[in-house]
Amino acid sequence: MAAPALLDSRLPIVAAPMAGGPTSTALATGAARAGAFPFLAAGYKTTAAMAAEIERMRELGLPFGVNLFVPGEQAWDAAALDAYAQRIRPEAVALGVDLGVPPARDDDEWDAKVAQLVAHPVPVVSLTFGLPSRRDIGALQAAGTRVLATVTTASEARAAAEAGVDGLIVQGTDAGGHSATHDPGRALEPVATERLVRDVLVAAELPVVAAGGVDGPRAVQGLLSAGAVAVAVGTLLLRTDEAGTSPTHRAALADLRFDETVITRAFTGRPARALRNAFIDRHGAEAPLAYPAVHHLTRELRRAASAAGDADRLHLWAGSGYRSARSGPVADVIRWLAGSA
């Protein structure tokens, strides 16, 4: 397999950024040494924590990128959010914790992170949840960074191209974790990643990294044949030795009791694909569109569930290919996906 020039890696495999713990520097290091291109997940981290992880990767001299969450409009129905808090409060009580208090605004330290990355550039920055200003994109590029925008439709791809990005990460609806849709309120109609890649390549003349629904080498080859320069994998790395995935989440991925994935707003207020569990069944239909407020509301509940081994109250992010997630070194998974195992 040829290395994609966009990412400067030996193999056309990307270790996707998984915020909240799974993407550790050990995972990124192992993936890079195996020939893949890893992204550090800056989402939910402080600017200082992001900078420390970047410095560790620089010291190793390995290729890597950084993923940022783009802040969007943060207006939600306060009454609906309060009603949801009352609805899920017994779940927190059962775990011996209080629900969190959402801040009035949370932009994930966007300005500080961009300033840090402009002052101390990295090879690639990817964007999730939307498009920032052209000024911010241009500042990153002027510092020598290639900027990739994550898109979920052809229209989003056109907007990203017009904003001046260098490439696209095309995410199909089978992807695990948060949908990168620029409009979290829209209905997410199922779309295969291979088909979406072809549609995006017609809509925007930019190199494409494909993401979503990868369950093995055949899926990788199909996406490359569709025109992607590389294929991003996340769920398939969750059970690897180096991943920071919690023991509760790891066990659930291999537990036959969890037999399907669904898209839900129950844990964060933004659509995300997860293993279907009792919390989703009880509350998913009532969850408001209110990100990141619901994320803050349920954060301590989810931490407690993870610590207690309670998979029915935990956000078990997983893509449709989760049954193929393997334990063992991340390098083995990368080699398997690249067809060189």
Automatic annotation (TrEMBL):
<dbReference type="InterPro" id="IPR001295">
    <property type="entry name" value="Dihydroorotate_DH_CS"/>
</dbReference>
<keyword id="KW-0216">Detoxification</keyword>
<dbReference type="GO" id="GO:0018580">
    <property type="term" value="F:nitronate monooxygenase activity"/>
</dbReference>
<keyword id="KW-0503">Monooxygenase</keyword>
<keyword id="KW-0560">Oxidoreductase</keyword>
<dbReference type="GO" id="GO:0009636">
    <property type="term" value="P:response to toxic substance"/>
</dbReference>
<comment type="similarity">
    <text>Belongs to the nitronate monooxygenase family. NMO class I subfamily.</text>
</comment>
<keyword id="KW-0288">FMN</keyword>
<dbReference type="Pfam" id="PF03060">
    <property type="entry name" value="NMO"/>
</dbReference>
<protein>
    <recommendedName>
        <fullName>Propionate 3-nitronate monooxygenase</fullName>
    </recommendedName>
</protein>
<dbReference type="InterPro" id="IPR013785">
    <property type="entry name" value="Aldolase_TIM"/>
</dbReference>
<dbReference type="GO" id="GO:0006207">
    <property type="term" value="P:'de novo' pyrimidine nucleobase biosynthetic process"/>
</dbReference>
<dbReference type="GO" id="GO:0016627">
    <property type="term" value="F:oxidoreductase activity, acting on the CH-CH group of donors"/>
</dbReference>
<keyword id="KW-0285">Flavoprotein</keyword>
<dbReference type="InterPro" id="IPR004136">
    <property type="entry name" value="NMO"/>
</dbReference>
